[in-house]
Design goal:
Helix content: 40-55%
Strand order of the largest sheet: 1-2-5-6-8-7
Structural class: alpha+beta
Radius of gyration: 21 Å
Length: about 220
């Protein structure tokens, strides 16, 4: 019997990934798996805590914090001072136009305190409750928006933030790595969770008015 001919199909055969791309993916997986060991996560945690201490030394104490200290906010006099796109205005979801010279609140999550609260509640519940505790504090402030950087695009969008892409380069690559290191250090899934995030870091922002509207008292979602 001769060799069987392949049946015709309207679907094109799936293209194999280029060898170089496959090698990079395997190396990335191996690297994060190694970092996900007990020793690797301990070192990642130490790095993240040191970075937090460095931030507080540079900026001083935060101007506001949530009930259990999970969320900490620092006032920045002009958004351009921390933005990766310092001269570009940004129209947020609710129509607020964030200008480069607007005062903002830089947003940080204290991962160790966050993890402690997760022992008794789902993470979305913890975040919503911490946000609700901040809303009355922020109601009378003058800053235009709460801003930060993240690799968790879907999650911050679910909580009302706008996101925008950042220009490629070494800075974006290093910050993406650092955000993944934070996720590795504090997420129970460790390296498995980190490997689900394939896209680079983005800027995230929510107007102060929208934040207060969403998270004030019984109206919080």
């Amino acid at each position: 019997m001769g060799p069987q001919e392949s049946l015709p199909t309207k679907y094109a055969p799936e293209a194999a990934a280029p060898p170089a791309e496959t090698s990079r993916a395997l190396a990335r997986r191996a690297g994060w798996t190694l970092l996900g060991s007990a020793t690797g996560r301990y070192l990642a945690l130490a790095v993240c805590r040191q970075m937090s201490r460095n931030l507080e030394r540079r900026r001083g104490p935060p101007v506001a914090g949530s009930r259990h200290g999970v969320v900490r906010l620092w006032r920045i006099e002009q958004f351009r001072d921390i933005s990766w796109l310092p001269d570009r205005p940004w129209k947020l979801h609710d129509g607020v136009r964030l200008q480069p010279d607007d005062p903002v609140l830089e947003f940080h999550i204290a991962g160790d305190r966050f993890i402690q609260l997760l022992r008794n509640a789902h993470w979305r519940t913890v975040v919503a409750q911490e946000f609700q505790s901040l809303a009355p504090i922020l109601q009378a402030r003058e800053e235009v928006a709460l801003v930060g950087s993240t690799i968790l695009r879907r999650q911050v969008s679910d909580f009302g933030a706008s996101v925008r892409e950042l220009p490629p380069g070494l800075h974006r690559s290093l910050d993406t790595f650092y955000r993944k290191l934070i996720l590795l250090a504090f997420h129970p899934g460790g390296a498995r969770r980190v490997l689900l995030e394939h896209r680079p870091v983005v800027e995230a922002a929510i107007s102060r008015q929208e934040f207060c509207r969403r998270y004030r008292g019984d109206d919080a979602r």
